[in-house]
Structure prediction request, 349 residues.
Amino acid sequence: MKTALITGITGQDGSYLTEFLLSKGYTVHGIIRRASTFNTKRIDHLSFNEHDPDNKLFLHYGDLSDGSQISNVIYNKKPDEIYHLGAQSHVRVSFDAPEYTGDVTAIGTTRILDAIQKSNNKNKIKFYQASSSEMFGRSPPQQSENTPFRPCSPYACAKVYAYWMTENYREGYGMFACNGILFNHESPRRGETFVTRKITRAVANILAGKQKYLYLGNLEAKRDWGYAPEYAEFMWKMLQNDKPEDFVIGIGETHSIKEFVDESFKYVGLNPDEHVKIDPRYFRPVEVEQLIAEPKKAGVKLGWNPKIKFNDLVKIMIDSDMRAINLEPIGEGDEILNEKFPDRWWVVD
Prediction:
């Protein structure tokens, strides 16, 4: 069976992708940063006991700012597929730490590509680069594979750099390297500082009497929001394609942050006007107003046909956040998952 290497394995996408690959019989190696506390909660339900003879998940300490560590794993484990999901991925934080964002998100990609190119296995390794819809910035929607990039944040600029380095290594060295330009995709495993999860956690906490107000920035920004497990599966499908190509993955519709707020509060019978406050600290210096995917190519070539749309996503996330603090969930989100994914490969949070 195949072997995969995942950077960013402890993140939302990394955890879902790990579950999917293990369900396919892969052996999975993941890169994690050394820290004083454990940061593996998203994959703790999976076995990664290296002393278990049946174990297929292995974790290695490494950092995208240190190419030697990454190279050692690639040379020693000889993965068939590499999924590069690791990054400083918070857009607002990138304005406060632009140099760090560039080093990890941009140059980190180059370190991996160069390690592949110098390895004895370079012609067999397939490489997936996690590109972002933020690269489009102020380019008018809908955004497709042919839309020019107009990045509006240090994060987006770093992702554009990584995108073009992936293209250059593909063309210059004949590597199987592709970019997945994924639009916003969310889930109960989304980081708690990202706006969607911040909203759904706040709704649950307000219901429980643990929180009174939710502080947000620009409510008018519009995004194309989908469900993360579906996107993780299509990362894999890109590397099963006959040739390396770049794909836009998204729903094809857009909703504002205000709509996300309104749907979330409505789902539990609360009035957002009584709880939502605007805080200037959460505004970006440069805003991206509207992103909408045009995923036609992925539909034709990879069979992309997402099942979870905006309203479903809100319900799934709130049910999970209610359950996390021992509240009885409304249940509609759970029903949606059971109906649309009766044979799902991921654990419901």
User: Anything to note?
Assistant: The chain has a mean pLDDT of 94. The first helix runs from residue 12 to 23. Residues 191-224+253-291+308-340 form a domain with the UDP-galactose 4-epimerase; domain 1 fold (CATH 3.90.25.10). Residues 202 and 214 are 6 Å apart (CA to CA).
